[in-house]
Amino acid sequence: MRPILQRLIQTAKIAAVGGTATLSSFFIYTRNTKFTPIDDSDPIFRIARERNLNPHENPTTHDFFIRRVPLGDIRSEVRDSPVKLTEAFCAGVWSNWGFAIQRALSSRSQNESNKSQLWTRDGLLSSKYNPGTLLMDSFEVLEKRDDGVIFRGGDSPSNKALRPLDVILELSATIKEDEQAVDFGFKSVFFAGDKRIEKPPMPGFVVWLHLQYAKLLLENGVANTI
Q1: How many H helices and E strands in the chain?
Q2: CA distance 109 to 115
Q3: What is the rounded distance in angstroms from the CA atom of residue 158 to the CA atom of residue 113?
Q4: Regions of the chain short of the pLDDT cut 70
């Protein structure tokens, strides 16, 4: 099974142990996260095209969630700096409790060749997420701008080749001065890059799990900014 699918399913099974009460709490916790449609004109698809990661132009699974927060609710130390706000958001996504199970699963692949990557919660909290940063043998920072960071996942960053399952992920924090709000975004595009396929790369139940997980990680990221 593809590593990212295996980890996602394992995470979901462990999380499901909490039962109905936990599920209800989850939907309350993520109730303010909104799904926004995107298509292949969205700039995130540019990464795959420019880096020739999907040469067969295979179908994708893609999604975009937004969480709006009043600007006044943002911590003062990051509110006036788009870069610091974006870094704090990314740090919250990767270091908070929602990603803890995947951090533990990913740690099994830690060895001498990749021990310099970000593995610990403290390291993920303090990172600037500059291009080239490697996370838990699972993600690589491809680009960074003031209001967003783009990651590549789906396999070990050491695999620079085309992948059976690839993912481009964008975490963003866009300050809306006129509306005195911040739009936090979690956007992802999944695709198979190594060979031609006719169907989207993930089965329906895995897509559903991913959508719930994306909302959870988005909320975790927001929590680190307020």
Answers
A1: 8, 7
A2: 10
A3: 10
A4: 1-24, 26
Secondary structure class of 149 (helix, strand, coil): strand
Measuring CA to CA, how many Å separate 124 from each of 16, 157, 224? 26, 17, 12
Could you tell me the pTM of the whole model?
Answer: 0.88
Please state, in angstroms and as integers, the Cα–Cα distance from residue 172 to each residue in 15, 49, 214, following that order: 26, 20, 13
Confidence at residue 6, expressed as pLDDT on a 0 to 100 scale: 52
Which residue type occupies 161? A
Q: Is the sign of the CA dihedral 193, 197, 199, 205 positive or negative?
A: negative
pLDDT of residue 18: 44
Q: Identify residue 77 by its one-letter amino acid code.
A: E
Residue 70 has what pLDDT? 97
Length of the chain: 226
